[in-house]
Amino acid sequence: MLPLRLARSALFAAVCVALAALAxxxxxxxxxxxxxxALGAGVVTAITAVAAGREREPVLIALLLGSxxxxxxxxxxxxxxxxxxxxxxxxxxxxxxxxxxxxxMLVTGWWVARGETALWSVLRRLAVRVVLxxxxxxVRPPAPPTPAYRPPGIPYESVxxxxxxxxxxxxxxxx
Length: 175
Prior knowledge:
Helix content: 55-70%
Strand content: under 5%
Order of helices and strands: HHHHH
Oligomer: single chain
Radius of gyration: 34 Å
């Protein structure tokens, strides 16, 4: 299911990077150029492609998103030139910048957690339907096994060839 994993990772990276760039710009930074955006999207896609193999808990999703937002904030701040920022643009402080990234993380986390729940629910239902479609269905129930027929006069040993017959009292214990 590599194509599904890559599609989920690319979609997650696109939303995460877009929210991070908008939060960075809103909080007073510059809007990142295509180079930092592409680099950020590539790194986030690569990291999430590794983690997208199975359904994740919302807490782990939030931790991954927080890490991605910190990484993207550092990338966007590193590529931005302080002289190019217009005066009085945005909120302007580092605390407010981090709050905007935190807000982006919460929005993305909610979106991803709901999407994960919906996606895995659909995949489970599809798997059940595929199994029901592909499973062989007997036309009629199997007949119960027939008992061995013993005509009169034939001893049991001929019917039960591999049975061990040990009738009698137990041997006395040796003293």
